Structure formats: C-alpha cells, structure tokens
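JOB MANIFEST
job_type = single_chain_structure
chain_count = 1
residues = 252
[input]
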Amino acid sequence: VPSHHPLSAPIDAALTRRVLRGASRVLHLTQEEAAGLEAVARGPLPLEQLGNGVPVPATSPPLPDRPEVLYCARLQERKRPVLFARTAQRLLAEGSGARFALVGPDEGEGAAVARVVAEVADHDRLRWEGPLAPDQTLDRMRQASLLVLPSVNEPYPMSVLEALSVGRPVVVTASCGLAPAVRNLGVGIVVDEEPESLVRAVRRLLDRPDELQRMADRARPAAERAFSMTAIGETLEQVYADAVGGRGRSST
C-alpha cells in the first residue's frame, strides 16, 4: 500500500520494490490492491487476481413464494443499513408485498435502524433480527429471495459470495470490489451510491419475478465456476506450477 510515512520510501527502495519486481506472480484480491502494488513497485507487475473462495452446494433451494429482501452485515455506517431500512419503508409504502429483514450486530447504526423499523410498525414486513452465528448465515440466506448490500467501498464482501453460492441474486454498489463480477455474470444489479438508485433496483427485481428468477438460476453455477474453493484452488495451483516451471514474468 502506498504510504507517506518517512520510512516507507527508503524501505520500498531497498527491499519492497525488489521483492515485487522479482516475483513470478504477485497475487491480489481487488483492483485497488493491484493499483497500490504497482504504485509501490513504480511500474507494471506480473499480477494475478486471486479471489476468496466459498463452499458451493450441489443445488440451491427455490425462491420463496413471498419475496424477502435481506440485509446481512454489521450495522455499521459504511455499510448503510439505515439506507436499506429506508428503502424498505419506501417500497412498503408503495404497496410492495415483500418482506424486508436486517441481520447483523449493532456497530453504531442499530438505534437508527430500530427507529425506522418502529415507524413501519409491522414485524412481518420489516424487522431487524439481530446478530447471527456465522454457521447459520447460509441457512438464513436460503430463506430470502435477494441480498442487498448498500455498502460503499466494500473490498470483497463474503456475504455476497455466500448469497450467490446458495442461488440468491444480489444488489451492490459500484464501489464494491465484486461489482464487476456481479455485472459480468448477470447475477444481480450494480447501483451508484444515490438512495434512489437502490430503490429502483430493488423495486425492479420485486416487480419482475422472471428476471429475479433468471438471476437466481445463474447465481449458484456462476459462484461454482468463479468463487468455489475448487476454482480458487485450481487457480492457485496453476500459479505455483507456472512459477516453479519458470513461466512467470516471461509469460505475462
């Protein structure tokens, strides 16, 4: 990561840059990391993106008869749970028959979310369920129709990968590290950071069940191809094989 610390320049010049430039491959998770690595190296590198992997079941359950829109993350300002709650409130006021639920521990935004939930005053339509143990997350996602994560600058959210792995489409912002994959794989909608964009995206999928179903049908197979433990392992194995075989920088 580029730094303005007074010690970083001499350390990078003496050590870091030499290590980066001499590597057969330099693995990174996000495009932001790739840009930071090349900034420190002061030039192009043999970069290879290596994502995080998730277990992918053989099948995914059907979407529920009554749509449910799920937020599953910490209730923290950057993740914008209040925006999710306000989006739910708006769509419910328009007459949506969907359910909306937030799952996650309070990290500063719980009181504001609770106020919106109280304004709706219908636990069946909008509720905050509180925290959930990690080993229960996938089961909870299977009960929903759609995962919405309105976070800004979210590097690589595992909740998005988990939702896709059980066949659930997603709505994310353009600053999410997984936004290009969501868009390219056709497994959700990418929005800008304006509240109205989020409302439009969720409304669109609730109003177009056929489109939601098509995205759901693509989600699990896409996750298996791109984000399964097997796929990530095969990529890493090939990276190591190329490095050992001398096909590093010369083949990049």
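[summary]
The chain has ten helices and eight strands.
Residues 209-227 form the longest helix (19 residues).
exit_status = 0
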